[in-house]
Design a protein that fits this description.
heterotrimer, A mainly alpha (366), B mainly alpha (291), C alpha/beta (406), A: 366 residues, mainly alpha, 15 helices, 2 strands, 67% helix, globular, C: 406 residues, alpha/beta, four-stranded parallel β-sheet
Chain lengths: 366, 291, 406
């Protein structure tokens, strides 16, 4: 029984180090599939319905926050494609996010392009940049690749502030974008429309990744992560797939950046610093590397946990944030997805029928 | 030509700071096989502790020793309390722990000691050398860094304990099989790295002034220098640190028009270019994996 | 003549009774966030993140409002100041401001800090018609009554300071070779622009434009570079850390240019003391606020008031940090606006009163400097005074200079 495709993280799915101990064994999942996970599709449908109804129950600014959560989830998904599926480490995704954002901003600000078209444009630009970056990155592994991507993250704000380019980028003062109105005169306000727009884009892109993961290409990408030499020996064109993955990863995060720019209506170099890359990485790990639904958890984390930390202690907000991070990583070392997997395995163990043994109902399975 | 010389010398002076940090980074990497993102904040916090001890009336050397010893203990505690519980988790999870540590130390330092810059004394003084291109403190800093490098080299290559630590970091399973207490080796490695960080912080603070955000840039440059030199080579890391300082200065001054505002970008691009040619850094050993 | 019937008398009765009931002062009109006992005001600032060194500004605003409340509030109402962290990232500022306006329903915001952060909420505040009072940044663009009638600036803007330095240099050293050190962001670039605009045709006096990033460890190499290129006028617009480094390095390499510090980096306690007083003799700067670490204000009434405020309401605050002076002064000016509103505490009236300040002073403003606004002038503070450092304190000289840049 193959594990559910949404949840790519199998025993081997740990970058760099093959044996990682705490990752749930694949056997537990086979039993779990007969448990409540069989209702998985029902669960997803229910979640979508709830998500669609939310804007009507909350104030405008909460809708705005939820839209941002989705934007961050999409950006983290992009990082997940590279790090979770393909095992390449990136500290530079703030650069792709920023490039996507500025592409959208410049197109809307200078060329009056409709906001919908900025998304594929941002995606295309970022795909190109990602692919081109992936080429030299082929030679680098692990921490050395991390430095190269980090260089990208540092370079972007500097380039955005660069004098001769100010005419396009707006320099340090940034660029303003007008808020899109709902189309066809729908009886909802701008915030709600942006929410639905982002939700639709998110669902489409999540679906695309899910299909990618289940396809031959997806398996090739993951094979490269798990055993690069074996994969090459089996005829997988490692270089091509690795650079393509970089491109696709950048594309996703770039589209997220464009959406982010439209939602916030403003871009400035300071919004896209290296620290944003770190946030994405933290969100990815908290959500669960290699998990697609985990990206949503990551997005929620990136937006809400700083707020929670601040409400506890404004003066020590950073320290509280760090403590929350530690608590979460202690309780869920493999992220939310890993936690869910373990919970499933434990529950499945409790409920798996075993006719030869004494009744073990209610007792934890040995 | 004279301008080039000036910039090279100035670059070596700042490079001394980066070399110091790069050494600490590589040391921790060798001891625990992780890149410690919180290294800079730990160094900064240790330096504040030393400063506080001096505020309480103690002389410099008492404060220095206190900071080094307390940092050692702190490093061991951090390893035992923070990283031990998650050492079986995926590698990237420990990255989150490092980021958490960074956040906590930075925020706590700002809360305890405010953001106004503070002077930190140096035993070397600030007298100019070489017609003002460097000063006695910078020379002292480079000297101490090289001295530390030498000591560490002797320790890791020449003593049994050093060998045990390297074994524990490189291959914990096999190390356990030959009787090495891997857990304590890792804790020791953390303690040493924290102490080296404290020394680095106390060398750097006199140049840049002490404040909670003083180490972020230094850590990034130190990281760049360590990677450039090769993460498996402490000597390479030191050289890498100097190289980063010089490249940044020379690029900033001599690359026309662009150099001024894109100094850091250019420096990093050059480093990445070097990595293209030597993917494990200038002096690093490439890891050979067996199929 | 119209018949006064019983009906008309009865109809008129409620009106008469109401008229009799109204006290002598104006009718109460309340906007969002206002009750008989409270006025809700919002603020955002960098409590965390790399710009956290500016956190004293929002902290002192909060503390000053607490003090005002303890003293009875404004016209009998307490100020409920809600201050949120935005970590100096524009998207977060948008989120927090929207929370303040849409969830907390504040009357106005005050002292929001940072140029990119305030830019991000600029359109929103003006579209929603919420007063964005006294933004804590020196960018020039906030003085725009026509385009953005709901946003009002606060401090003398950076470009006008740059022009003031230019005017000074054209007079004192018209043949100088200028080197500029500036931070590579909006505030640094604004200074540079002001300087260049002020020099006009003599722009070519600027031989070196050296920038730095806040993540740079030192600016020593920029200083060495300037000396090597024969610079004899150094316009230093750096923040205290880098200003102190440059002063010390210049002294070390025995470089003695005409050294102008901007008001940002001129604090005695935060910059000059770490740099070494003996290295600072002859430094020139401009001020609009009193430097709390300057001994000349020891017996000044305004300083004493501020000092007592710090002791009681921000005991952990650093008295050397200029942010605590800026925040307190900003809060005091806000209190003035709210006072002027009387019982008509609507957003429109708040904005009207903010554009109606006449010769307002707050404790820590330099003697003689007053805040003035009008419906066409949204820059409350425009004046600065130049000063020279004697080795112990800043000696103010010359007249108050008005550096208006529109």
């Amino acid at each position: 029984m193959s594990p559910p495709a949404d949840d790519i993280a199998t025993k081997e799915s740990v970058p760099f180090v093959a044996a990682a101990g705490a990752a749930a064994p694949a056997e537990a999942l086979s039993g779990a599939a007969t448990g409540w996970l069989a209702g998985r599709h029902l669960l997803i449908a229910a979640a979508i319905v709830v998500a669609a109804l939310m804007p009507f129950f909350f104030k405008s600014f909460v809708t705005f926050q939820l839209t941002q959560v989705m934007v961050y989830a999409l950006a983290i998904l992009g990082l997940n494609i590279l790090t979770g599926f393909n095992g390449q480490f990136s500290l530079g995704h703030s650069a792709f996010y920023g490039i996507g954002a500025y592409t959208a901003a410049i197109l809307m600000h200078d060329y009056d392009v409709g906001y919908v078209w900025t998304l594929p444009a941002a995606g295309a630009v970022c795909f190109a940049v990602g692919f081109l970056f992936g080429l030299p990155a082929l030679r680098l592994q692990g921490l050395y690749l991390a430095l190269a991507t980090f260089a990208l993250a540092i370079a972007l704000p500097q380039i955005l502030k660069f004098g001769p380019l100010e005419h396009w980028t707006g320099g340090v003062q940034g660029l303003f974008i007008d808020k899109p109105d709902p189309p066809f005169g729908l009886p909802i306000d701008s915030d709600q429309w942006l929410y639905y727009f982002t939700l639709i884009v998110l669902l489409l892109l999540f679906l695309a990744v899910r299909n990618l993961a289940r396809s031959r290409t997806g398996r090739a990408i993951m094979a490269i992560r798990d055993h690069p030499i074996a994969a090459a020996a089996m005829g997988v064109n490692s270089s091509l797939y690795k650079t393509l993955t970089f491109g696709v990863s950048a594309l996703y995060t770039g589209i997220a950046g464009a959406l982010g720019a439209i939602v916030v209506q403003f871009v400035a170099p300071d919004s896209f610093s290296f620290l944003l890359s770190v946030s994405f990485l933290v969100g990815l790990i908290i959500g669960g590397i290699g998990s697609i639904p985990g990206c949503l958890v990551g997005g929620i984390f990136v937006l809400y946990v700083p707020n929670i930390a601040e409400s506890i202690s404004r003066g020590l907000a950073g320290a509280i944030y760090g403590i929350i991070l530690l608590i979460i990583i202690f309780v869920m070392p493999s992220g939310a997805a890993g936690f869910v997997r373990l919970a499933n395995a434990w529950l499945a163990g409790k409920w798996r029928p075993n006719p030869t043994a004494r009744s073990t109902l209610g007792q934890p399975r040995r | 030509m004279e301008l080039l010389l000036h910039q090279v010398m100035a670059g070596l002076a700042t490079g001394g700071i980066y070399a110091c940090m790069a050494l600490a980074v590589v040391m921790i990497y060798q001891a625990i096989d992780h890149l410690n993102f919180a290294q800079g904040e730990m160094a900064m916090f240790s330096t504040f502790i030393a400063w506080q001890v001096m505020q309480w009336g103690q002389p410099y050397w008492v404060a220095f020793v206190a900071a080094v010893v307390l940092s050692f203990i702190g490093g061991v505690l951090i390893e035992r309390v923070l990283f031990r519980p998650i050492h079986n988790a995926p590698v990237l999870s420990s990255l989150v722990a490092f980021i958490a540590l960074f956040s906590i130390l930075n925020s706590a330092a700002g809360y305890l000691w405010d953001y106004t810059i503070k002077t930190f004394p140096t035993p070397f003084g600030h007298k100019p050398l070489l017609a003002g291109l460097a000063d006695t403190h910078e020379a002292g800093m480079i000297g101490v860094t090289l001295g530390l490098l030498g000591l560490l080299y002797l320790f890791f290559r020449g003593t049994r304990l050093g060998l045990a630590m390297r074994a524990a970091a490189a291959n914990p399973e096999s190390a356990r099989l030959v009787g090495i207490r891997v857990g304590w080796m890792t804790a020791l490695g953390w303690g040493m790295a924290a102490s080296i960080g404290a020394v680095a912080g106390m060398l750097i603070a006199p140049v840049v002034f002490l404040e909670p955000n003083m180490m972020l840039g230094v850590l990034l440059y130190g990281f760049a220098g360590a990677v450039l030199g090769g993460l498996t080579s402490p000597g390479g890391a030191v050289l890498g640190g100097f190289a980063v300082g010089v490249i940044e200065n020379v690029a900033g001054t001599f690359i026309p028009y662009v150099g001024r505002e894109l100094k850091l970008t250019i420096a990093l691009v050059l480093i990445v270019a070097v990595l293209m040619v030597r993917p494990s850094g200038l002096f690093g050993r490439s890891v050979v994996s067996r199929v | 003549m119209k018949q006064v019937t019983r009906r008309t008398i009865l109809a008129a009765a409620p009106a008469v009774l109401t008229l009799a009931a109204i006290p002598a002062r104006a009718q109460k009109k309340y906007g969002p966030g206002v009750t008989d006992t409270e006025i809700k005001v919002g603020n955002t600032g960098p409590y965390s993140g790399p710009a956290s060194s500016y956190s004293p500004v929002p902290k002192s605003i909060v503390a000053w409002c607490k003090m005002v409340n303890d003293q009875g509030g404004v016209n009998g109402r307490k100020i409920n100041l809600l201050s949120y962290d935005d970590a100096y990232t524009p998207p977060k500022t948008v989120e927090q401001i929207r929370k303040l306006v849409e969830q907390d329903e504040v009357l106005c915001t005050v002292g929001t800090l940072g140029t990119p952060t305030n830019s991000a909420i600029w359109q929103y505040m003006n579209q929603k018609k919420v007063p964005q009072l006294f933004v804590a940044t020196g960018a020039t663009k906030w003085d725009d009554p026509k385009g953005h009638p709901w946003t009002i600036g606060w401090q003398p803007n950076y470009q006008s300071e740059g022009r003031i330095y230019a005017a000074y240099l054209l007079k004192e050293k018209p043949n100088g070779k200028i080197g500029v050190l500036y931070q590579n962001d909006d505030f640094g670039k604004d200074y540079l622009k002001g300087l260049k605009d002020g020099l006009g045709e003599k722009k070519s006096m600027i031989a070196v434009e050296a920038s730095y990033e806040t993540t740079d460890p030192t600016v020593d190499s920029q200083i060495v570079d300037m000396k090597a290129k024969g610079i004899d006028v150094f316009v230093n617009t750096a923040i205290p850390k880098f200003a102190a480094q440059s002063i010390r390095k210049a002294a070390e390499i025995e470089w003695k240019p005409l050294h102008i510090l901007s008001s940002i980096g001129a604090s005695v306690g935060a910059t000059l003391k770490p740099a070494g007083f003996e290295n600072c003799k002859g430094l020139i700067s401009d001020f609009y606020l009193k430097d709390p670490s300057d001994p000349q204000w020891k017996d000044d009434a305004g300083f004493k008031e501020w000092s007592a405020f710090m002791d009681k309401y921000l005991p952990d605050g650093d008295k050397l940090d200029a942010g605590n002076v800026a925040g307190a002064s900003l809060a005091a000016m806000t209190v003035q606006v709210l006072k002027q509103c009387g019982d008509e505490l609507t957003r429109e009236n708040v904005m009207k009163q903010a554009a109606n300040l006449h010769d307002v002073t707050v404790p820590m403003l330099l003697p003689g400097i007053k805040a003035n606004t009008s419906p066409t002038d949204f820059a409350p503070l425009k004046q600065v005074q130049m000063a020279r450092f004697t080795g112990e304190r800043w000696e103010l000289f010359g007249p108050l200079i008005t550096g208006a840049v529109t």
